[in-house]
Write a structure and sequence with these properties.
This protein has 25 helices and 25 strands. By secondary structure, it is an alpha+beta fold. α1 packs antiparallel against α3 and α2 runs antiparallel to α3.
Length: 764
C-alpha cells in the first residue's frame, strides 16, 4: 500500500508532459500548414491538454485521499518522507506512538526536527549516551538507509519496545513503519532467561553427576546411552571410549566380553550376554559384577518414560571385607569344633564350672574315667551335687574315708580356691593329680591328670638313677655336666683321664679351661644363642672341637651336648670322645687325596691344567659369563714345526721348549679366573675372563712376541727360532650355544694362521 501511494505521488510529472506534447503538435502544424494552422492546432491542443490535466488532477486527489484512509483504518504507524527528508504524511497510529508529537507535526517538517521533538518529548529513551549522541547516531543511520531497508528496535521511556522498519522509495523519499513488539520482546527475554536457567540447571546437574562417588548412566527407551558421568568410564577402562551418547547397551557389553574383563563370562560369552540382556532393568535390586578383578554393585531402575537409570558403585573393599568376615566366621566355627575335639582328645580330665559353681562342661577323657555317671544330666547342677552323686556311686577318693561328710564340706568350701595341686587316690587304684584354676571371670577350670604310671615311673627312676650313676662312673667316654653359665658341675673318671685333672680341681671352673680359644668361643656363642632362644645348634649332633690337656698338648675331641630341664634344675650333659688318633689319620688321607686330585687335573710336564681341567674351567667360565652378560676369550696356541724340533734337537730339548712356552702363557694369565692348559702335544689353550675380541688379539700378540723375544733356536724351522701360531675367538655367551663353540672357532682361526705362514695371530 505504501508503494502505491509513493507511485501515485510520483505522477506529478504527468502535467508538464501534456503541455510539452501540445507545443510539439503546434510546431509540427506550423511547419506543414503555415502559421494560422499552427495557431489553431496549438490552441486546440492547449484546450484538450487543460481538460485532461483537470481530469487527471481529480483522479489523483481521489487516490491520495484513499491511501491515508486505508492506513488509518488498518491502524498502521506509517511515516512518509519526501526526497528532501521532509514530512510528506504520517498516520494517526504513528502520532499515538509518540504522544509528545501530537499537534507538533506539520507537512514539510524536516526529519531531524521530528526526531529531536520525539526525544525531547520524553517518549524515547536515548540510553546512557544522552540526547545529542543518540540523535546524531540516529540521523547517520537514517541517511545510510538504502533500497534494501533497515530494521531496529527502539526503547521507549514507558517501557515499550517498537520495531522500526525503514526503506527508501523509488522517488527518493523514505517510508517508515513502526510496530509495538513489547510483548514479543518480553516473551523473547523470558525465553532467554528460561534457556539460561535450563543451561545453568543442566550444568549443575552435570557437575552433580561428575561429583558423585558412583558411576551414573541414563539410557533411552531404545537402550541407547543418553548420558554417563566420568566415573563410569573410570570403572570400565576397556569400554570407556564407547560410552558416548547414542551407543547401544549391547554394543558396550559385547566390547567388555571381547576384552575378557568379565571373569564370570569367560568361556560362555554368548550365554552370559543373553542372560544379561534378559535381566536388563528387571531385577529391581542391586547385583554384583566382577570386572577386571574388582567388584561393582550395579542397580538399574526403569523410569515411567521408559528410560533406564543405572548407578554403579565399586564395592571391592566391601566384598573383600564380607568375604573375610565369612571366612573368619567359618574359621571361628572350625576353631570352635577343633577346640572341642582338642579338649576331648586331651590326655587329662577337664571340667568347667560357671561363676555360680554349676557344671558347664566336661571332656570325653573325664567321662571315660567314670562311665557310670551321666554327665549330660549333671550339666547345670552344682559342684556339691556332683560330689554327692560320686558319694552315692562309691567314687569318692580314699582320702575321704573315715569322715566323708567332713571331707565333702571342706572340698565344697575350697572349690576353686586351692592354689596347690592335690593328689587323689581313687578306689580303682587310679591316682589323679587335681589342679583347680579360677579365671578372672569367675569360672573354675579343673584339670585332672592320671599320674598312676608317673608315680610308678618315679619310683622306678630312683632305682635307675643309681644305675646311671654307676654307668657314668664306669663309662669309657668322658662325661661332663655344665650349668647354664658354662661352669663344670661334675666329671667322670674318663674325663679326668682325658684332660689330666682331678675332678675336685675342675668343679666350679669355666669350661674354657679345658678348650682351646677358638673352640671355647664357638661353644660359648652357641650356648648364649641357645639360652636366649635364638637357636638350637648347641644340642644334638656331635661336634668336633680342639681341647687342651693339662700339660698343654692339643686334643681333638668329639662332643655331643644335651640339655636337662627339671622343675628345680637346669644343666647340660656333654659326652666327649678322644678322636686325636682318628684326626691324624684323616689328615694324612686328606693330603694323599689332594695330591691325587692335583695329579689328575695337572699336566705333568708343564704343571699347567690338563685337558680335563680345561674342559671344566671352560664350562664354568661360559656359565659365569652367560649369567653376567660379559665376553670371554679362548686362545688356541700351537708351537710351529714342533715335530721337526723333536727330530732335530731331541725329545729332551722338546720338553724344555714346551716348558718355556708354558712359562710365557702362564705370565699372560693375569686374572685369578684366567686358565692356562696344555690341550695336547704342542697345543695350548689360554682362557681369558671378561675379555673382548680386541683385548684377546692384543694379549695373543703379546704372547707371540714374548716367545719371539726368548729367541729359542730351532734348527729345522724357516725362521731359525721357535715360533707360535695363535687362533683367537672372543664373544658374549648366548643361550642356545655351547662352550665347545669357543674351541672350534679358535681352532679354525689357528688353522688360518698356519695356512697364512705361521708365527702369527688370527681371529674368528
Amino acid at each position: 500500500m505504501s508503494r502505491g501511494l509513493l507511485n501515485l505521488m510520483g505522477e506529478r510529472w504527468w502535467a508538464p508532459g501534456v503541455l510539452l506534447a501540445a507545443l510539439l503538435l503546434g510546431a509540427l502544424a506550423g511547419a506543414l500548414a503555415g502559421e494560422r494552422a499552427a495557431l489553431a492546432v496549438l490552441g486546440a491542443s492547449a484546450v484538450l491538454g487543460l481538460g485532461l490535466m483537470c481530469a487527471r488532477e481529480r483522479h489523483l486527489l481521489t487516490r491520495l485521499s484513499a491511501g491515508p484512509e486505508a492506513m488509518a483504518a488498518l491502524d498502521i504507524a506509517l511515516l512518509i518522507l519526501d526526497a528532501e527528508d521532509r514530512l510528506r504524511w504520517c498516520s494517526p497510529a504513528f502520532v499515538r506512538l509518540y504522544p509528545g508529537l501530537e499537534g507538533q507535526l506539520r507537512r514539510g517538517m524536516r526529519y531531524a526536527d521530528m526526531a529531536r521533538l520525539a526525544v525531547q518529548s520524553g517518549a524515547i529513551d536515548p540510553g546512557p549516551q544522552g540526547l545529542d549522541a543518540w540523535l546524531a547516531e540516529r540521523l547517520a543511520r537514517h541517511a545510510r538507509t538504502g533500497p534494501e531497508g533497515d530494521s531496529w528496535q527502539q526503547q521507549m521511556q514507558d517501557g515499550r519496545v517498537l520495531q522500526v522498519l525503514e526503506r527508501r522509495t523509488s522517488s527518493g523519499g523514505w517510508a517508515s513503519l513502526r510496530f509495538d513488539v513489547t510483548e514479543l520482546v518480553q516473551a523473547q527475554e523470558a525465553l532467554r532467561r528460561a534457556r539460561d536457567e535450563a543451561h545453568a540447571s543442566n550444568e549443575m546437574l552435570t557437575e552433580a553427576l561428575e561429583a558423585m562417588p558412583a558411576g551414573f548412566e541414563i539410557w533411552g527407551p531404545d537402550d541407547r546411552l543418553l548420558r554417563a558421568n566420568e566415573r563410569v568410564r573410570q570403572q570400565y577402562p576397556p569400554t570407556a571410549h564407547l560410552l558416548q551418547p547414542g551407543v547401544s547397551f549391547e554394543a558396550v557389553v559385547r566390547a567388555s566380553l571381547a576384552s575378557g574383563a568379565i571373569a564370570s563370562a569367560r568361556g560362555r560369552e554368548s550365554e552370559w550376554l543373553g542372560e544379561r540382556l534378559a535381566q536388563r532393568g528387571r531385577l529391581g535390586r542391586p547385583f554384583l559384577q566382577d570386572y577386571q578383578g574388582r567388584w561393582i554393585s550395579v542397580e538399574e531402575r526403569r523410569m515411567p518414560s521408559g528410560r533406564l537409570v543405572t548407578v554403579r558403585q565399586e564395592v571391592t573393599e566391601l566384598v573383600e571385607a564380607r568375604n573375610a568376615l565369612t571366612q573368619a566366621r567359618q574359621l571361628a566355627e572350625q576353631r570352635h569344633h577343633l577346640l572341642a575335639h582338642a579338649l576331648d582328645a586331651l590326655p587329662m580330665g577337664l571340667e568347667i564350672f560357671d561363676p555360680e559353681d554349676r557344671y558347664l562342661y566336661v571332656n570325653r577323657t573325664f567321662r571315660d574315667w567314670h562311665p557310670r555317671v551321666d554327665y549330660n544330666q549333671l550339666i547345670g547342677q552344682t559342684f556339691e551335687q556332683a560330689v554327692r552323686l560320686s558319694q552315692r556311686l562309691g567314687l569318692l577318693p580314699l582320702e575321704a574315708r573315715g569322715d566323708e561328710e567332713a571331707w565333702i564340706a571342706e572340698r565344697v568350701a575350697s572349690h576353686g580356691r586351692r592354689t596347690e595341686p592335690m593328689l587323689q587316690h581313687r578306689p580303682d587304684s587310679m591316682v589323679l593329680l587335681t589342679q583347680e584354676i579360677r579365671t578372672p571371670e569367675g569360672f573354675v577350670v579343673t584339670l585332672r591328670q592320671d599320674v598312676t604310671q608317673q608315680l610308678a615311673r618315679e619310683r622306678a627312676l630312683e632305682t635307675s638313677q643309681a644305675q646311671v650313676l654307676a654307668i657314668v662312673q664306669t663309662a669309657g667316654a668322658a662325661i661332663l655336666t655344665l650349668d647354664p653359665q658354662g661352669r663344670l658341675r661334675s666329671l667322670n673318671p674318663a674325663a679326668e683321664a682325658l684332660w689330666g685333672y682331678p675332678a675336685e680341681e675342675l668343679i666350679g671352673q669355666p669350661l674354657d679351661r679345658l678348650l682351646q680359644a677358638e673352640a671355647n668361643s664357638e661353644l660359648a656363642g652357641l650356648m648364649r644363642e641357645h639360652l636366649r632362644g635364638q637357636g638350637s645348634a648347641l644340642l644334638g649332633p656331635r661336634r668336633e672341637l680342639r681341647a687342651r690337656h693339662r700339660d698343654g698338648h692339643a686334643i681333638h675331641i668329639q662332643a655331643a651336648i644335651s640339655e636337662v630341664r627339671t622343675a628345680g634344675d637346669h644343666f647340660f650333659v656333654a659326652v666327649v670322645t678322644d678322636i686325636s688318633a682318628a684326626k691324624h689319620l684323616e689328615a694324612e688321607l686328606r693330603l694323599a687325596n689332594e695330591r691325587l686330585e692335583q695329579l689328575s687335573r695337572t699336566d705333568a710336564l708343564t704343571e699347567l691344567a690338563n685337558r680335563r681341567r680345561l674342559m671344566e674351567a671352560l664350562q664354568e667360565l661360559w656359565q659365569h659369563c652367560l649369567r653376567e652378560r660379559k665376553p670371554f676369550a679362548l686362545l688356541m696356541v700351537d708351537v710351529d714345526h714342533f715335530k721337526r724340533y723333536n727330530d732335530h734337537h731331541g725329545h729332551r730339548a722338546g720338553d724344555a721348549a714346551l716348558r718355556a712356552v708354558a712359562e710365557v702363557l702362564r705370565a699372560a694369565a693375569r686374572r685369578s679366573t684366567d686358565v692356562v692348559a696344555r690341550y695336547g702335544g704342542e697345543e695350548f689353550v689360554l682362557l681369558l675372563d671378561d675379555c673382548d675380541a680386541e683385548g684377546a688379539l692384543r694379549r695373543a700378540e703379546e704372547v707371540r712376541a714374548a716367545l719371539q723375544a726368548r729367541a729359542l733356536p730351532h734348527g729345522a724351522a724357516p725362521l731359525g727360532r721357535v715360533s707360535l701360531s695363535i687362533g683367537v675367538y672372543a664373544q658374549v655367551p648366548e643361550a642356545g650355544r655351547r662352550a665347545e663353540d669357543w674351541l672350534s672357532r679358535a681352532d679354525a682361526a689357528l688353522y688360518r694362521a698356519k695356512a697364512a705362514g705361521r708365527d702369527r695371530v688370527e681371529s674368528s
